[in-house]
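Batch queue: ligand-bound targets. Current item pairs a single chain with magnesium ion. No template structures supplied; prediction is de novo from sequence plus SMILES. Inputs echoed for audit trail.
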Amino acid sequence: MSDAPTIKIALKNFKFFQERKPLLNGITLDVVANRILGVIGPAGSGKTTFLRSLNRLNDLMPDTHIEGQLLLDGEDIYHPGFNVVSLRKRVGMLFALPVALPMSIYENVVYGPRLSGIRKRERLDQIVEQSLKAAFLWDEVKDRLQMSGLRLSGGQQQRLCLARVLAMEELEVILLDEPCSGLDPISTAKIEEALTVLKQKYTIILVTNNTKQAARVADDTAFFLLGDLIECGKTEKIFTVPDDKRTNDYVTGRFG
Ligand SMILES: Nc1ncnc2c1ncn2[C@@H]1O[C@H](COP(=O)(O)OP(=O)(O)OP(=O)(O)O)[C@@H](O)[C@H]1O
Ligand SMILES: [Mg+2]
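Prediction returned. Tokens below.
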């Protein structure tokens, strides 16, 4: 059968330790290409740690080690020969607090492409327009691309940060860590709308403290608790007939 889903990321009994303390206790999970995986769970359950393992941002913490495997397109990203610089271009990340760079909207978007050597004005103009359109921000800023990015609203700055991630040509996976936590409902809806379009091209992992957001946009949902993956499945199943009582308690708001 040719329509078997493509596994973009596979974790095989993946463990992450900090100062010998396990923060992820052996995660086995397949992330399917061109779908949105929602990641939910209470504070301190390891959602951010999981996300930061996927582009090796956790490496920046002192005294860490991993066990097991984490494969991107079948390649072990923790293999000593794996190119981490290229990994971070392929696996981009959007954080909870939008921080535009202190430069124009235009320069915010082309910052990455310029660093990777793109110089032609026409090409840069094209990247700016494409990325801002894909981030659902273009119409609001197209007439003032030279204005400082810092003068945009929080919701607009978050979409500018998304555009900056989308401007990376090698991008394959988008990681988002509570990207809408400080945003109003309209900005939130624009990010969600952007994600549902972007999944045609990318694989998306969305950590959210808002279970309703996962229910709205995620195709699959993973529930984390105390560093364990309790269960992962189709979003509809996780929210209606989960296998584990703890998942049910969490999604129905009866947790803790
Ligand atoms: N730099 C660090 N050093 C030591 N422990 C850490 C560090 N970062 C996170 N932890 C611990 O790892 C565990 C998981 O934290 P993590 O930030 O991944 O949780 P989370 O699910 O993202 O929580 P939240 O919903 O609050 O963002 C927590 O017990 C936390 O205290
Ligand atoms: Mg977190």
